[in-house]
Amino acid sequence: MKPPTKDSERKKNIIAKYNSTASFYDDRYRKIQKEKYKILFRNCNLNYKTILDAGCGTGLLIEHVFNLNIDNLKKKVKYIGIDISWKMLMNFCDKSKKIKDIEDINLILGDIENLPLRQDTFNVIFSITSLQNLPVIKKGLGELIRVGRKNSLLKLSILRKQLKVDDLIAYLKTLTIDLKTEFLKNIEDVIIQGSLNKNNIIEGNI
Ligand SMILES: C[S@@+](CC[C@H](N)C(=O)[O-])C[C@H]1O[C@@H](n2cnc3c(N)ncnc32)[C@H](O)[C@@H]1O
Questions:
Q1: 134 CB less than 6 Å from ligand 1?
Q2: How many angstroms separate the CA atoms of 114 and 82, rounded?
Q3: DSSP helix/strand/coil, 52
Q4: What is the residue with the minimal CA distance to atom 27 of ligand 1?
Q5: Which residues 6+ apart lie within 8 Å of 175 measured at CB?
Q6: Residue 127 and residue 144: Cα distance in Å, rounded?
Q7: Which residue, 4, 33, 118, 128, could crosslink 157 as a Cys pair with Cβ 3.0–4.6 Å?
């Protein structure tokens, strides 16, 4: 067995943190997360989209989508949520039983830095207040880009604290088109949106 590394220890702590806070996560964070979703869903058409929610937590994003009251949503959306904390996912499972409008909800216990997903699969990729937890954000971003299709929408919200925002934006600019960044007073995250420019990607170089 390989000895634990600094990164694997950090992930263990993240899992323990979210497992222990899952039961009160929604009450504490629903309101602020919804503010972020509102911004990310501006001009976002969900018709016939395959959506990835990386670090989906308890499913507040899909709850928000459901509350948008879009006609025939269940026929239009295929949703995959992935999270590293099984307790957050268990809460999501309970929630998804109540959300009957979207049939195609699939949840995976897994790591954003090593996505167990095929390349070129998703039309929209969300990752909301999750990427700051990664030991190597660019590794996670590389994975998100790998599984995204050409021109798919990338919709990120990342906690700004301790984040090298300029460095991250410079990196994303090389891989996206129309990258927009928003800093809002009442939100501690930077909101980043763009479309994937997979033409610029050289295999093994992200
Ligand atoms: C602040 S919560 C955000 C949850 C959700 N996106 C929302 O909007 O409420 C961060 C989530 O990221 C997950 N997470 C942290 N590191 C992860 C990793 N390496 N892979 C997958 N999920 C991760 C945590 O388990 C937690 O559920």
A1: yes
A2: 11
A3: strand
A4: 57
A5: 141, 145, 196, 197, 200, 201, 206
A6: 9
A7: 128
CB 57 near ligand 1, within 6 Å? yes
Residue 154 host element (H or E): strand 148-159
Q: What is the pLDDT at residue 33? A: 97
The answer to whether 125 and 144 have CB atoms below 8 angstroms apart is yes
Domains of the chain are 6-200 (3.40.50.150)
Report residue 203's pLDDT band, with 50, 70 and 90 as the boundaries. Answer: low
Is 175 exposed, middle or buried, given 0-12, 13-18 or 19+ CB atoms closer than 10 A?
Answer: buried
Total-model pTM: 0.94
25 lines ligand 1 (CB under 6 A): no
Q: How confident is the model at residue 199 (pLDDT cuts 50, 70, 90)?
A: confident
Query: Which pLDDT does position 121 carry in this prediction?
Result: 96
